[in-house]
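Entry type: protein chain
Record version: 2
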Amino acid sequence: MVCIAAFIIFCLLSVFVAILSIFKRDLGKKYWKTFKKAWGCVGKKVTLQKCEMGFKDDIKNSVLSKVIVKKPKLVKPISVGIEVVAVLIVVVTVWSLVTAVKSGLALWTLGTCDVVHPSACIIGAEVCSIDGDEPKNVVEYVGRWFEDWGEIFLAVPDKFRSWEVSEFDLSGVVAVGTNLPSDAPGAFDIMDPGCIVCLQSYRNQLNSGFFDKYSTVLVPYPIQNPDGSYKFANSDLIVRYIFAADMKGVPESTTEVEGQTSMGQAIFGEIFTEFNEDHIIYQTVFNDYLNRDEARELLEKWLAKWGYSEDEIVKIREIAESDAVTDKIAKNKDIVENNIHAKGIPTMIYDNKKHTGRYEAE
């Protein structure tokens, strides 16, 4: 272990020694000679051959030479300490390499280097993360570590898959956009009404003409925390009203709601693009200012504004709490987490590919 640890340390010191050797060539020659010995020893270890014992002794002697003269009694414990430190260096290095490989594979397959907390990965796409359970002890931590590998390998086929919107259950979606021809390319857009990245993505799609090119369906998906609560206040209620209004249909007193093609899109559009009288975006109003009853009151105020009668609003309220809507939410959750393997949203499918993170106009 000593020679392997020495090789690791020499690798880390290489850059500094290379710079110093410009001014002190003897230092570079001495370092290079010892480095070649360490590399030779590691090469033998890898090929299951016996390492040159002299090198190990050289390393120890160079450390212990001064101790032997001044405090000979400390030689043995320090020698043992060197062995222990060598083992720790090797273990930490191997663990770091494995973690780096795991993070790289996760980034490639899932779009994030942190499987449990996707938004914590600074080199991944900007998302509202779908977080996993936080390990509470060593046993759970080890189990979670292997679960992460399982999720990564399950998602590998997704990189080589041709994604088609038609292959998903479209009973829990909201139609978006203009009257496009039947042969227009499709798009599948997963969004949480409370997610700021979803708001930005929706606006980018709207302003860039994405909905005029792709026959798009929005997939309302309220992100749940591991404890069952929702990541954003009132997201579950909003999604329920989105489904309920869509199931009830456009009110008889109007044929169009501010250019929207469905009542579900009308609610999404109001939350993502409109402001209240204090010029606060409605998404922030729902997330930070309203309790559940106040959020329901505002949603029903919009429904009345769009032409629904009082009786129709009561019916929508009943549908929102029905098993039918609960089933739609459960189906979408299964699609997002178990079929698409999304670790954060927005996640989009278009042009036969899965795209994670905010949509950026080309």
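Comment: The longest strand covers residues 186-191.
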